[in-house]
Amino acid sequence: MKEVLLTLLSLTLSGSLLCVLVLLLRPVTRNRVPRAVSYYLWLAVLLRFLIPFGYGITLPQPPQPTQEMVRQETILPERQDQTNTQTAPITPPSESVTVDQPETTQPSAPAISLPGVLVFLWLAVGAGFFLWHIAAYARFSRRVRISLAPPTAEALALFEGLGLRRRVRLAQSGQVDAPMLLGVFRPVIVLPQGGPSLPPQALAAALRHELTHARRWDICYKWLVVLVTSLHWFNPLVHWMGRRIALDCELSCDEAVLRALEPEQRMAYGDMLLMLAARPGRPSPWMAAPLCQEGKRLKTRLLGIKGYRKPGKGAVCLTLVLGLVVTCCACGMVDTHPPAAATAENTVQRGGASSVSAGTPTGGELSAYGPLLSRYAEALLRKRPPIDFPDLLLVLICPSWDPAGTIGYTLRDLNGDGVEELLMGFVGSEFWSMDEGYVFAIYTLVDGQPVLAVEGWERSLYVVREDNILCHNGSSGAGRTAWNQYRFDPSAEGYLALLDHVSEPEDGEEAWTIGDSWMDSGVSLPYIRFSDGGKSPYQDVLLGKAPFLYVDGSGQKIPTFLPDIPLAFSPYSSYAAVTEFAVLDLDGDGSREVVLRVTDVANDMGGYVVLRQEGDEIMGYPSHWRTFWYLKTDGTFTYSYTAGTEDGIASARFGEDGLTLEKHIRCEMEAWEPKAFEVDGRPVSQTEYETACSAQDQKADAVWYELNETNIQQLTA
To answer: How far is CA 392 from CA 376, 377, 440, in A?
Structure first.
C-alpha cells in the first residue's frame, strides 16, 4: 500500500509540475500559435498524470542537520562480586505463592494500516467521482436519444454539403438548447427543435464546429480528463486543468471554423454564439460537446474570434519547439521514494522513569545498541585489559576461553512490545558446555539508552524458550540449586517476573528432573560472533559487492548480483526493486537466512528471494509473490496459489529440489470456495482449521527492514 501511495504522489507531483510549465508557456503561445496547439499540449499533461514510467527527477532535499557522534554510556545496575551467587529469591515451601501468568501471545501486525486506509479512501472517492459522471452522461444521453427526430430538409442539405460526415448522424431534439455532439461509438449531432431557427450561414458554421469535435474525437479526450480527475480528485490543480481544457477545446474548434469563413462571416459566427447564450440553457453533462455551454466563457471565445489571424511560418516553428519541450518534460517523473541512506528510527516513549522505548522496529534498536556493541568488539578483538572497560560484563570480555571466537550477540523481542532486546552469549564453547542456547546478558532500551537488565555467569545460567520465557538455573556451590521460570517484564523489579520455581533440597530430587527439563527447553539462538569482525557473509551480497548463486526454475545456478534480482521478476519495469529484507532462521537449523522482498509500482508482480549460506557459497532461491505473507519469527508464513485452488500456512525447507514448502495448515478451494481443510497433514473441520489459523495469527511477526546501507551493515553485522 505504501508503494501505491508513493506512486500516486509521484504521478500527481509530476503532472502538477508539467501543468505549471504549460501555464508558464501560455504567454508565449497566446496569439502566436494555433489554439489547437494549446489544446493538445494538455494531452501530454494528462498522460503524465496517468503513466507511472519515466526518467527519475529528484526534488531538492532540505539540508540535513549535522549529527554529532555522542558516546553512549551503558547504564548498569550495581553488581555483586563475581564470586557470589546470583539466584532469584527462593520462596520457602511453607509459604504459598500464587503468580498470575499473563498471556504471552505476541501482538500481530494491525489488520488495517494508515496507508491501507488512505488507499481505500482514494479508491472510494475516485470510483464514486467516475461513476457519477458515467451515470449523469448515461441519463442525459438516454433522455436525448429517446426524443430524437429527423432533421429538417434544410439542415440535412447543409450537413451533406459539408462532407466529412463519415459515421456521424444528424438529428434534432427538444431536449437540447444548442447544437451539440453526443456519443462516442454512435455519434450524433443534435440540433435544438422548436424555437427560433438558425440562419443557414450560422447553421453551417455550427455544424462545422460539431463535426470538428467528431473528427478530433474530443468526447474521448473529455473522458480521459474525467479519468485523470477521478484518480487525482484530491489535487485542485487537476480540476482547474479540466476547466481549462474544456475552454481550449472550444477555442480550437472555433478557430477551425473561422479558418473557412470570410472576415464579415466571422462576426456573424460570434452573433450566433451570443444568440445561443441568451437562450435559457438546460444542464448537460461535461462529456457532451455543446456549441455554447457556459456564458462565462463566452467573452473569451468572442475575443478569440475578434483577434483571429492565420498562423505564419514562425508559428509553425514555435509549435515544434513547444511540442518538443513539453514532450521531453513529460518523460520525467518525480521520485518520491526516500533516499537509500535514510533510516527510520522512530521511538515513542512511555511514561515512567523506567519506561521502555517502543515503536515500530526499523533498525533503530540496533542503532541504539551500536555504541555498546562497538565497546564489546573493541574489548574482545583488540584483547585490551578488562580494567579499560568497567561498563562491560567481565564474564564476557575476560573468561578463561578465547573470547573473540566464542562470544556473540543477537536481537529478540522478549516481551512483544515491538522493541528488540540485545542478547549476548556463547557460540559453540566446549567449556562448561555453554553452547548457543545460553544467555549471559540481556540489554533493553530505557529512554533510548541500553540498560543491562539480566546478567548471568557460569553458575547463573539463562536460556530462552520458543515462547520467550526465560529459564534460569543458579547454584551457590553449597548444596543448594534453584531453577526459575521468568517472563521478561521491564515494569517488574529486576526486569523479571517470576512464573515458577523449584529448588533442591527443598523440593528434593524431583527438582532436578523438573529443572533440567526447563533448561533443555531453551532454543538455539542465532548469535553473530564478534570474531567475524562484525561482518556477516550476507553483507557484501546485500551491498551489491559480491555475487550469489541464483537458482532458477531449471535448477541452474547463475552468478547474480543483487541489483539484477528485479529483472528476474519484472524484466520490463524500471520501478521493480528489492525494497525490504528480513533476517531470521527459516528452517530451524540454527542458521539465519535473508528474505528479500521484490516489489513493483503497485506492490505486485514481484516476489521473494531467499539468501542461504551453504558451505562457502550464498545461494539465492526465488519464490513467487504469494509466499512469505505474514512472515513470523519462527519462519512460518501464509501462502496461496494464483489459481485460487489452495492457501494455508507453511515453512520453507531446503534440499535437492531447492526451496520447497512444508505445509502445516491447508485449505483446498474450488471456484474460490473452501472445500477441504487440513492441519499437520490430517483432515479437520472448518472450526479446527480456523482455530489453527487464529493460533498462527498470535505468533510474533518477523520484522521487515528497509534495504539500505545502514540497515544492511547493522543487521548483518
So the answer is: 7, 11, 12
